[in-house]
Structure formats: C-alpha cells, structure tokens
Amino acid sequence: MIRVHRPDLPEPLAAKLTTKSAEVPKGDHESARKAWKSARAVRKSLTEVLREMAAGCRFCMYCGETLGSAIDHHQPIAMNPARTFDWLNHLLACDFCNSHYKRDQYPVDAAGHCLLIDPTAEDPLDHLFLVLSLGKYRALTDKGAATIKVCGLDRPLLERGRQRAFQQVKYAVAAWDRGDDRAKSQAAWTLREQPHADVFHAMLRQADSPGAREIFDGDDVLIARLRRFKDS
After folding, report:
1. Which tens digit of pLDDT belongs to each residue from 140-188?
2. CA-CA distance, 79 to 57, in Å (whole number)?
3. Which residues fall within 8 angstroms of residue 73, CB to CB, at 6 or more apart?
4. How far is it, in rounded angstroms, from Cα 2 to Cα 62?
5. Taking the C-alpha atoms of 157, 76, 21 and 5 in order, what is their torsion angle to the nearest 10 degrees?
C-alpha cells in the first residue's frame, strides 16, 4: 500500500455526485445501494479517474498486485449511506480485495476514529514497516495492525510477490544508475509501473533511515543508488 494523490474531480462529475447524494434518503443504506448500482455512468466515470490516480498500471490501492476493477467505499455504505457518492470515500480495489477481504469492514477505536488506512489521506508507511527480505508487513501503529488484518496484507501470495519485487527493484535501480538517458528512462518506467509499488517506495524510505546498512545487509552500493534515485 502506498500514498496516492486524490485529484479534484471534473466539475460535471462532481456535480453529478452532489445530485446523487441529495437523492439518497438519510440513513437508508438499502436505497443508497440501489442508487449506487443504478448509477452506471457515474461509476464508469469514477472508475476512470481512480485508475488514473492508482499506482503503476492501475493497480489495486490495497494489495498493489492486481489490477483494480472495483470501486470500494472506504467507509461502507451500510455504515454511512450519506457517503455513497462522496468522492473522498472512493478507492480503487481489485475484486478479490473488495469481495473477500475489505468488504464492509471499517474498524474504529474507542473514540470512534477509523483504524483503517486511507492511502489518499495519509502515508501508509507511517503505519506499516515492510521487511523487504521477507515481503512481510509489520505494524507500527494500531491503524497499521488493523489494516494488515482487514486488507489481508499478510497473504502468503502477496508476501512472495513482494519478495520477488524486492529483487527486481534491485536490478532495475542498478540499470538506472549505470545506464545512459534511454536506459535510465526505461528503468525508471519499470520501477514505477511494476506491481507492488509499495516495495520500491519502502526501499526509498528505508534507504534514508538511520538503520539503512542493517536493513540492506551492508549493501552500500544499493543504498547509494536508492538515494540518488530519490534525489533525481
């Protein structure tokens, strides 16, 4: 999971969402679901905007591995029907994350504050630490722990995918560092478009940490390359 920028919607689409929101009866989640399902044109337009803001080749904003094909309501319709057409409540998810993991889960703490990371509003890496060699996330906060559980970020297949991505990023960063302008451009494209963008972002962040040499097993060359890429 990585931080993604949420842009302002085109005015016509924003106006449609406002109109649709006004049509949802207060507190009626069944009517809200029906309104959402019937708003096919709105959903199609929203999906395109979400795909443009997603990492790489339109990957799921939760797992980062699979192409996003569904709009997830960060705060579920069942919990808050009023946010059914709220742009700030929409994320791009793959069908698997949306249907098998996240679903209608929305954990909160004792004060009612959400315990699920919103990657458009905060940096997930403030709550999660990625053990690169294992592809495993460790929670830094309660929000990180809840997000790992709810989104299934500890799935073995995802962890193996992150392990592979760690090795691939090493090669791509080396190609970027040694190459001419054309090679640098190709390597940079590979780094930004591959699945598991969270691995690359975690590597850039950890390369600047006080414990970088321990994290990267004393690989000073890799650390220097990551820092140069970050500064480029």
Report:
1. 999 999 999 999 999 999 999 999 999 999 999 999 999 888 888 999 8
2. 31
3. 83, 84, 89, 90
4. 8
5. -40
What does the pLDDT average to over 127-147?
Answer: 97
Using the structure block, give the residue that is written with the tokens 């808050």.
80
Question: Position 74: which residue type?
Answer: H
Position of tokens 């040694």? 178
Q: From CA 138, how far away is CA 159, in angstroms rounded?
A: 12
Residue found under tokens 């000073």: 220
In the predicted model, what is the mean pLDDT of the chain? 94
**CB neighbours of 218 closer than 8 A, spacing ≥ 6?**
none
Distance, CA of 188 to CA of 19 (rounded, Å): 42
SS3 70: strand
For residue 33, the tally of other CB atoms under 10 A from its CB is: 15
